[in-house]
Design goal:
With 359 residues, this protein is of the alpha+beta class. 23% of the residues lie in helices and 30% in strands. It folds into 2 domains: 6-166, D-amino Acid Aminotransferase, Chain A, domain 1, CATH 3.30.470.10; 177-342, D-amino Acid Aminotransferase, subunit A, domain 2 (D-amino Acid Aminotransferase, Chain A, domain 2). The strands form 2 sheets. Strands 1, 2, 3, 4, 5, 6, 7, 8 and 18 form a 9-stranded mixed β-sheet that branches. A hairpin with a 7-residue loop joins strand 10 and strand 11. The protein is globular, with a radius of gyration of 21 Å. It binds pyridoxal-5'-phosphate and 2-OXO-4-methylpentanoic acid (COI). Pyridoxal-5'-phosphate (PLP) is lined by residues 73, 233, 236-238, 257, 259-262, 301-303.
């Protein structure tokens, strides 16, 4: 089912960034945004693309008081022939609905949601940057918008999409990042909202993230909230380790975000003949592997972060170096293949690419 999208184009388009090497992440927004409203009587209605601008919001809105919000992060890529394409967008749509279900927010029609995403990307196609390593980051988000303070499942909601031309997420680019393993705060617990991509998970992670940054680390590696010893994920990425030739990545226990980049990397690694273990993986096992020299590579995976080598790990006062603080061979191969598929330079044998429009 497609939503009936009304398009109101801006009469004052902004100048697009000239220097694509300075895009950074999430600071520049395109000319338009998508909005659609929900209430229990009408369901989703009034789908519209309007000039980018502030959202009017009731001071009692559920999202402001009880954090009823879920979001997605995906990218549109410009292929060598100039055409625009998405990477596994239906995975994002399905995850958005799973997140919404966890927070008692209304779900979207999957085909309709994909059509909305393609419509706004096509409208903003000139904003998809051209330089290597750049893309148009798409941020769909859905929030409860009831104008009263009772705590209950929402009756009014808004679905929005904004877009940003982006470069690398980390200032380090493809250089190894320094990660601090967090031993005090926890991000999520089983039964909670860890597997959902909801704003509250990120709010809960900020204190540890700030502490890590003050000490010179890029992000935090979370341990599980019950035993406080199993590795879960990094602030904006899932993690993988190559130990004695095998790949180990934390199992999706319910408190870890089921990353689409993670899933894609696991599929690529299996195609290449690697044994991939998705299981509980303790910090002790990681440090044994570091100390006995069997930890060959460590990296994170995520839409914003792509494939990001981990060069340093800090835990309880000690710092450890991974792969001599250089990008490992397999990390580089994963990066090259994944981005090759995303930018249309490597054949897409899995059917992961969804074409949007010509350039
Ligand atoms: N884990 C967290 C907490 C994230 O924010 C992200 C980014 O979306 C990921 C993992 C990676 O997920 P994906 O590969 O779907 O972007
Ligand atoms: C993403 O990779 O899309 C993310 O959502 C990470 C972060 C910017 C929250």
């Amino acid at each position: 089912m497609k939503y009936d999208i009304k398009i109101n184009k801006t009469t004052a388009p902004k100048a697009r960034p000239e220097d694509e090497s300075k895009l950074g992440f999430g600071r520049i927004f395109t000319d338009h945004m998508f909005l659609m409203d929900y209430n229990t009587e009408e369901g989703w209605h009034d789908a519209r693309i309007v000039p980018f601008g502030p959202l009017p919001i009731h001071p009692a809105s559920t999202v402001l008081h009880y954090g009823a919000e879920v979001f997605e992060g995906m990218k549109a890529y410009r292929a060598a022939d100039g055409s625009i394409q998405l990477f596994r967008p239906m995975e994002n749509v399905k995850r958005l609905n799973k997140s919404a279900e966890r927070l008692c927010l209304p779900e979207l029609d999957e085909e309709g949601c994909l059509d909305i995403i393609k419509t706004i990307v096509e409208l903003e196609k000139d904003w998809v940057p051209h330089s290597e390593g750049t893309s148009l980051y798409i941020r769909p988000y859905l929030f409860g918008n009831d104008p009263h303070l009772g705590v209950h499942a929402v009756k009014n909601a808004t679905f929005a999409i904004i877009c940003c031309p982006v470069g690398a997420y980390y200032a380090e680019g493809l250089n190894p990042v320094k990660i601090a393993i967090e031993s005090e705060d926890v991000r999520a617990v089983r039964g909670g909202t860890g597997y959902a991509k909801c704003g509250g998970n990120y709010a809960a992670s900020l204190r540890a993230g700030e502490r890590a940054e003050r000490n010179g680390y890029t992000q935090v590696l979370w341990l599980d909230g019950v035993d406080r010893k199993y590795i879960e994920e990094v602030g904006a990425m899932n993690v993988m380790f190559k130990i004695s030739g095998k790949i180990i990545t934390p199992a999706l226990t319910g408190s870890v975000l089921p990353g689409i980049t993670r899933k894609s990397c696991v599929e690529l690694l299996k195609d290449w003949g690697y044994e991939v273990e998705e299981r509980l993986f303790s910090v002790d096992e990681l440090f044994d592997a570091l100390e006995n020299g069997t930890l060959e590579e460590a990296w994170g995976t995520g839409t914003a972060a792509v494939v990001s080598p981990i060069g340093n790990l800090f835990y309880q006062g000690k710092e450890y170096t991974v792969s001599d603080n250089k990008i490992g061979e397999l990390t580089q191969k994963l990066y090259d293949n994944l981005t090759g598929i995303q930018w249309g330079k490597v054949e897409d044998t899995h059917g992961w690419i969804e074409p949007v429009c010509n350039g």
